[in-house]
Structure to design on (165 residues):
């Protein structure tokens, strides 16, 4: 799958190995506090994770999109579409900390949702959010998401949202 998604400020495309060096320094402990994952301890540990992403893409099960600024190609964040060929793909994202509160999260998620709607016709999207993560809850609610369930993760309580397709 060769996909490029363009939004007002970003270009999103599937992750490649060449992107890893831009991502690793931005994976902070503070950023990971509301993520289901912990910050990898080293660039080598991160490599063990990202090596799986192209395989998952080739299997058409998951796609990790890298977001870059469409002006200078600087790294913005990662946007995930997990199970993109299923009736209910799961969304996730993180934007580098110094770019928070600029509307990049909704812009990128909106772009990949539109891509998925065009090519795969989902019934709805799933978006899990840590209960304490108010900015992400506002983001998903702004996209029309409604809470439908609660799950206990080892790190925190997750609110499971459904976003209409």
């Amino acid at each position: 799958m060769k996909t490029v998604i363009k939004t007002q400020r970003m270009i999103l495309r599937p992750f490649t190995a060449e992107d890893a060096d831009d991502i690793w320094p931005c994976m902070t402990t503070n950023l990971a506090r509301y993520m289901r994952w912990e910050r990898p301890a080293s660039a080598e540990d991160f490599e063990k994770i990202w090596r799986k992403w192209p395989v998952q893409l080739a299997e058409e099960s998951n796609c990790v999109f890298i977001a870059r600024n469409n002006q200078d190609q600087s790294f913005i964040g990662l946007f995930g579409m997990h199970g993109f060929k299923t009736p209910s793909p799961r969304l996730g994202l993180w934007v580098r900390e110094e770019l928070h509160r600029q509307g990049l999260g909704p812009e990128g998620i909106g772009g990949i949702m539109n891509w998925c709607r065009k090519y795969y016709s989902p019934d709805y999207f799933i978006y899990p959010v840590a209960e304490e993560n108010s900015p992400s809850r506002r983001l998903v609610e702004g996209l029309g998401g409604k809470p439908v369930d609660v799950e206990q993760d080892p790190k925190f309580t997750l609110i499971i949202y459904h976003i209409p397709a």
In short: The beta strands are 5-6, 10-14, 62-69, 75-82, 90-95, 124-130, 146-152, 157-164. Residues 62 and 82 are 4 Å apart (CA to CA). Residues 5-123 form a domain with the Aminopeptidase fold (CATH 3.40.630.30).
